[in-house]
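A common beginner's mistake is to predict each chain separately and then try to dock the pieces by hand. The better habit, illustrated here, is to supply every component at once so that their relative placement is modeled jointly.
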Amino acid sequence: MKDRLFSALKGQKADYIEVRLDESKSSRLVYRGERLEEAGKTASTGGCVRALVRGGWGFVSFNSLDRLAENVALAVNQACHVGNIESQFSPATPVVDTVPAEFKKNPIEVNLSAKKNILDEYNRIMLGTKDIQTTSIGYADTKKKVTLATSEGTYIEQGRIDLNLRLSAIASKDGDVQQVGLSIGSKGDFATVENLHEKVHDIANRAVALLSAPNVKGGTYTVVLDPVLAGVFVHEAFGHLSEADHIYENPQMRQLMVLGRRFGGKHLNIVDGAAVPGYRGSFKYDDEGTPATKTYLIKEGVLTSRLHSRETAAKMGETPTGNARAINYTHPPIVRMTNTFIEPGSTGFEEMISGIDEGVYAKDWYGGTTSLEMFTFSAGEAYMIRNGKIAEMIRPVVLTGNVFTTLGNIDAIGNDLDMNQGGGCGKAGQSPLPVSNGSPHIRIRNCLVGGK
Amino acid sequence: MDDILAVACKSAQSAEVFRVTSSRTPVQFEANRLKQIQTKDSTATALRLVKDGRVGFAQASGRINAAELVNMALDTSQFGFQAGFTFPYLQPNNTVRIYDPSVENVTIDDMIGLGSAIIDAVCANTAGILCEGSVSRGTATFEIASSEGGRASYRRTNFSISMDGMLVRDGGILYVGDIQSSCRVLSDHKSISGEIIRQLELARENAALRSGTFPVIFTPYGVAGALLSPLISAFNGKTVLDGASPLKDKRGSYVFDNKFSLSDDPTIPYQPGSGPFDDEGVQTRRNTLVYRGKVVQFYYDLHTASLAGSSSTGNGIRNGGMPSPAIHALVIEGGGTSLTDMIKDIKEGIVIEQLMGAEQGNILNGDFSGNVLLGYKIENGAVTGRVKDTMVSGNVYQLLKEVVAIGSDSRWIGGYVNTPSIYCPAISVSAK
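With all components supplied together, the output reads:
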């Protein structure tokens, strides 16, 4: 394969060309209530070529390798049609490497009936809870091999095994419908979706409890986020803004995001990195062949770095960080997060809530999104804080804020860092990309909470 | 496809093969300039079979050996659900016009010219704005064959233009944009730049709204972004079957304002959501979901219909897996009030154009809450500027129970929703 790819890359007049091939196999199980709605298997093979000529890009994706040389020529031709300036693309030392998929308890080796038995157990727990109307369960695992060959001589084969499980318990009474979900993800360890019985009990009970929980009154509150939700917060509220493709060709954004700008207090440190091992966003090389790094986006409250592809890094005079990722062969790599987290501080949980007269304790995630400047994220579970103590359960809340001010409103960071692996990230039509995010508990002053 | 069916029927009682072959050419713009030209070709094949009364499923992208695909599907069938339906006899059907050969003849240079003209017009209106978007053409062929006999296929062209503008102003960011999609060639670049410029003009000044309850107008974009997901979920036959739809026992009841009518219509010529049959080979039709406030029916695929004792409404759609009930193209019936007259009617209120996070609420019971990404303040019958750092919260069923007016300004949003503006008496606003 190596020779075939390199020979297809030869003889083209381009500043850079890469060929990427994907081979993947996945299986999935979908339940709605007691019905198993889908037991399915998927096999996929495909590839793409990306070419850079005088600053312009051409990209061709295909399922059949039969016309590889023609596809390379087409990508180069398209790039020629676009390009009219000097290409800027960070240089790279060619790498030849083979990275096998990491796994502990390999989900691919677990047969479908064993997977089904576990899901049946969880489903029975939920459906057996009084006032649970129905459930929804989606499980999928994927084994994938990605091969990258570039005109610079890089040839990398990387394997990856990813799995995820999403469970929802849906409670209903007198026309009202409430739901609580649980999301689990892992890079190659089936054990992470085993022995969740207690958690599954808990989501079913909480869904029922929500039927009688009040709504929060909308307004500005002091908010305490648990590690899971704070992880979603750091991903939405700051992670996306630090992706350099939002910044590199926008002079005003470059001013807003100038390195050295203060975003938060001295206690605030935000990191992204695929080199942090063992999580769903971990890998050895990104999809441009750049080795993974660990990047301090914010150090002691000050903007110190950002996430780069080879093009954004070259155009900003900075160093590639190994964040160019493509969800599959039908898309070119773009700047993405990997494992993003707030580093732990020193405040204990009791201390964090003790001074709050009226606030909101928001846990777990339901969703999140950002416009770069503004972000919203929603909790899966929420409580009022009254007189320094956790008080009544309330219905899940949506929180919002402005990136440029909210990080400065974080006034306490806990000591209990935890990573959430259950989410997937969407950007430019490429979703859901496996990422992880995390944080210790954090406290945010003046956070806008939606409500009636 | 016949080879797969032949192999499948050696072990299974019945089988169905569905294949989509597509080719798409997007021309992409970034930072006001042409950035990338793409060509995307793909073929995906899905096999559904019934073995010992149970349904198995497998799919493959790229080249696949028939025996391997069949084995994958057989492997899953031992866990599959009991087939309560039979694959329909497939009849060729070309009643819905969705193919325009001229789409395939549009040159790359024409597409570049179209995108550049939009960017030039927007930049001429507003200095410092950066546009990002794409002009794309493509063709997709859908084929279905089953052991029950017959065969059906159709070809659909698509031409899409999307353009977003981003303006950094006063240390903050303003987003504007438009998306249009059709089976025919779109060439009116002014209708897109005009829409973007309209948004820019309305957002020219900043205006602050205080917390409270105010009259609200959802523009077509606002309706599509904030109000539709809960309804799409509630009318889904599967949600109804599971008892998780608030409309489950409301068929025939008046749940919405009598000015509100909603249908799913895959028969409108040259719309990207249109097609002669669904992804299970069932002929499509226009389905009225709400007629003048009354819940008329829900939408079904074959499997869900068989469980519900109903019949498929032609809404079996594949979204990366087995067919499941889904919407083709939602149409909210237009009214007679212009947006200007709606605004004139309001002393203090809000226009919602884009709401961020609306789908993060409890969609099942219709609650939504979101940050007003693009919205305008109304004061004494006129828009005074853009509202920022503001959240609105509401419930779709409460909002649509009493509607003040439905707009005369119906338009397609991205080709899959056709809606006018909707004016409601009250929404809860939380502002900083």
